[in-house]
Structure formats: C-alpha cells, structure tokens
UniProtKB/TrEMBL annotation:
<dbReference type="InterPro" id="IPR001705">
    <property type="entry name" value="Ribosomal_bL33"/>
</dbReference>
<keyword id="KW-0689">Ribosomal protein</keyword>
<dbReference type="InterPro" id="IPR011332">
    <property type="entry name" value="Ribosomal_zn-bd"/>
</dbReference>
<dbReference type="GO" id="GO:0005840">
    <property type="term" value="C:ribosome"/>
</dbReference>
<dbReference type="InterPro" id="IPR018264">
    <property type="entry name" value="Ribosomal_bL33_CS"/>
</dbReference>
<dbReference type="InterPro" id="IPR038584">
    <property type="entry name" value="Ribosomal_bL33_sf"/>
</dbReference>
<dbReference type="GO" id="GO:0006412">
    <property type="term" value="P:translation"/>
</dbReference>
<dbReference type="GO" id="GO:0005737">
    <property type="term" value="C:cytoplasm"/>
</dbReference>
<dbReference type="Pfam" id="PF00471">
    <property type="entry name" value="Ribosomal_L33"/>
</dbReference>
<dbReference type="GO" id="GO:1990904">
    <property type="term" value="C:ribonucleoprotein complex"/>
</dbReference>
<keyword id="KW-0687">Ribonucleoprotein</keyword>
<protein>
    <recommendedName>
        <fullName>Large ribosomal subunit protein bL33</fullName>
    </recommendedName>
</protein>
<dbReference type="GO" id="GO:0003735">
    <property type="term" value="F:structural constituent of ribosome"/>
</dbReference>
<comment type="similarity">
    <text>Belongs to the bacterial ribosomal protein bL33 family.</text>
</comment>
C-alpha cells in the first residue's frame, strides 16, 4: 500500500514537496536532493512525520 509523505528542506525546514512511497518495501525515511524555493538552491529534503 502506498502512502503520501511530505518532504521538507533540511536547511530552512520548508515543506516543499509531497510524494508517495511504499512503506512495506521501503520502511526507512526518504532523502532526496531537490530545489528549495526559499533557499534558491538544491538542498537535501527529508521525509517528515
């Protein structure tokens, strides 16, 4: 079953992106490098609770 997750910037903590993931096959938190509109640069975005 896929569930919605929210990705937040590690520098400014803005919640910029949302995506889906399969919690059974990937129980760990997602970490993706994406563009942050607030920081105006590519930063690490992590899954929030």
């Amino acid at each position: 079953m896929r569930s919605k997750v929210v990705l937040a910037c590690e520098i400014c903590h803005s919640r910029n992106y949302s995506t889906e993931k399969n919690k059974q096959s990937n129980p760990a938190r997602i970490e993706v490098k994406k563009f942050c509109k607030s920081c105006q640069e590519h930063t690490l975005h992590r899954e929030t609770k």
